[in-house]
Specification:
Helix content: 55-70%
Low-confidence stretches: none
Order of helices and strands: HEHHHHHHHEHHHHHHHHHEEHHEEHHHHH
Number of helices: 24
Number of strands: 6
Distance between the termini: 76 Å
Structural class: alpha+beta
Shape: elongated
Length: 562
């Protein structure tokens, strides 16, 4: 390749990044993102004791940030309470939005935006990661050149017509375009997106849909239009945002798209973070229309060594953004993750945000079922973090998003489950409820009929009885009370194992015979496990008791084969 060819290859991307362009879009993005993060900080302050305090519902032994990055560790060294960190987010975010000490405020905001998610990984979601990335890129751009206190103090103007090389602002456009393209490529193979049923189910899913969605939008026909429309919008927005001729209309469509999402689906602050990012993508023509004047096209300055280094850094950033989490991972993505993964993991930096790509349309309820000392059966749904026992308060219209994230963490993470069970036991004891058997289950319901489609047992316990060491009555009562089939099967096997062990060892087993007689015919026992139980029955010395065990097994297995 000739030197002229190399210069031409360099000139095009350099001009895109370094040619002076209006900075008002970046300033609007700064104001919007700072305002969103300030609002988020206020909400975190309100719920601080629940999610971020030392005894909160958070991991106990999570990998810590490097000491110099951990704002909570700094607060501890200074003798300050942990709640000072979300308070610092509010102050820094407001200063960043106002453009007052923009760089210092932005760096302080970035530090707390790194520390706060790491404090409680149970409740982190994609919006946290995307906001942090957009904040970093705004700090690498002239976002304080307009609409900032810094600009006003510098020359007494708001700099509405200011122009400068955008750099980080251009990378925001790349990030947003990749987000839309990756979402489309990940959604397209999924049957529910291709056949148009996804949005119809999503708007009936209590985990995500808002309760006041207009009735016409809940129909199957509207669901098909919204599903295919979302795919089409994401496909078209990806390239449209990168070209000046189409970026203006694309930004308007995208902002309307995210406002519609925020109106119908609970994605916390993700839609508003996306809107902040889209403001940074506004092209020259749109900004000229906002300020009501012409914005002359200025040439890029001659490239110096700093510009060459910056362009190389931007190229590396784009490569990593494309290769880190592609719709179909390959050799390139594995090498990038191998090289940068340890550094990203050390600071809990996430580069994956996909809107309803992996989320199931199935509604998840977390159910508690308990048998009290009186024999009474209680079953209730956990719908608010601070109310673990059955209460008289009405169910909240829509649980908070952080609570929903913790609910999903309980389903998938053992540590979150253990913390919840410990809190549940303490709450039951504080309420004076003596529990003889307890089950915690994730129940999966059809979003249309609320019929139970399946479930996952998260925790089961049966307290010992003073008479025979196992409370057979409570176990049978719990089996009849839970709605989760895996839990029923687990409890059934627990009862049989406890009874066989007691019979073989000659231990007291008062209530076992009645429990075997009370086993309902709708229970199911895995045939393979039934064979092992039959082997155990052969060791029961009492013929009548052995016959009762075998009769119960016959009923259970025969019903399972019907």
């Amino acid at each position: 390749m000739t030197s002229v060819g190399i210069e031409e290859l360099f000139a095009a991307p350099y001009a895109w990044f370094a040619a002076p362009a209006p900075t008002l879009g970046l300033a609007l993005a700064r104001v919007a993102l700072g305002s969103v993060l300030a609002f988020d900080g206020l909400r975190m302050l309100r719920d601080h004791a629940l999610w971020y305090a030392d005894d909160a519902l958070r991991p106990r032994a999570t990998r810590r940030l490097p000491a110099w990055l951990d704002a909570f560790a700094w607060a501890g060294r200074l003798g300050l309470p942990a709640r000072v960190v979300p308070l610092a987010q509010v102050v820094a975010a407001l200063a960043f939005a106002a453009g007052l000490g923009t760089t210092a405020a932005g760096l302080a905001l970035l530090l707390v935006c790194i520390a706060i998610p790491a404090r409680n990984l149970f409740i982190v979601y994609g919006g946290d990661a995307f906001a942090r990335t957009i904040l970093l890129l705004l700090l690498c751009s002239p976002c304080a050149a307009a609409l900032s206190a810094d600009r006003w103090l510098h020359d007494g103007t708001l700099g509405l017509d200011a122009q400068a090389p955008l750099w980080g602002g251009r990378l925001i456009a790349v990030e947003v375009a990749l987000l839309y393209l990756h979402n489309f490529l990940c959604k397209w193979p999924l049957p529910a997106w291709r056949d148009g049923t996804y949005m119809f189910a999503l708007l009936r899913n209590k985990n995500f849909a808002r309760t006041d969605v207009p009735a016409p939008l809940r129909t199957a026909a509207a669901g098909r239009v919204m599903t295919h429309g979302a795919l089409l919008v994401e496909l078209l927005l990806a390239p449209a945002l990168l070209f000046p001729a189409t970026a203006g209309p694309a930004c308007v469509v995208a902002i309307g798209f995210h406002l519609a999402i925020a109106r119908t689906v609970d994605v916390h602050l993700f839609s508003y973070i996306m809107i902040a990012a889209l403001l940074a993508c506004l092209p020259r023509g749109a900004i000229a229309g906002l300020v009501g004047g012409d914005m002359p096209v200025l040439p890029a300055a001659a490239a110096g060594w700093a510009d060459i280094v910056a362009l190389c850094a931007a190229a590396i950033y784009v490569i990593v953004a494309i290769a880190w989490d592609p719709p179909r991972p390959g050799w390139c993505s594995r090498q990038v993750q191998r090289a940068l993964g340890p550094a990203f993991a050390a600071i809990h930096w996430v580069r994956s945000w996909r809107l309803f790509v992996d989320s199931s349309a199935t509604h998840i309820e977390l159910e508690f079922t308990a048998v009290l000392a009186t024999g009474e059966l209680l079953r209730w749904t956990w719908d608010r973090a601070l109310q673990l026992v059955p209460g008289l308060l009405p169910r909240p219209v829509r649980p908070g998003h952080r609570f929903q994230r913790f609910l999903f963490a309980v389903v998938t993470r053992t540590e979150a489950r253990d913390i919840l069970v410990a809190r549940l036991r303490a709450a039951l004891a504080a309420a004076g409820l003596q529990v003889r058997a307890l089950s915690v289950d994730a129940v999966y319901e059809d979003v249309h009929s609320l019929a139970v489609l399946g479930g996952k047992n998260l925790h089961t316990e049966v307290a010992a009885s003073r008479a025979d060491g196992f409370n057979y009555f409570a176990c049978v009562r719990l089996i009849r009370g839970v709605r989760c089939e895996p839990t029923r099967a687990r409890l059934l096997e627990l009862l049989l194992l406890a009874g066989l062990d007691a019979a073989v060892r000659g231990r007291p087993r008062e209530g076992l015979a009645a429990a075997l007689d009370a086993l309902a015919e709708d229970l199911r026992l895995d045939p393979a496990n039934a064979a092992r139980f039959r082997e155990g029955c052969a060791r029961v010395p009492e013929p009548a008791e052995r016959a009762k065990f075998l009769g119960a097994l016959d009923r259970l297995v025969n019903h399972a084969n019907v």
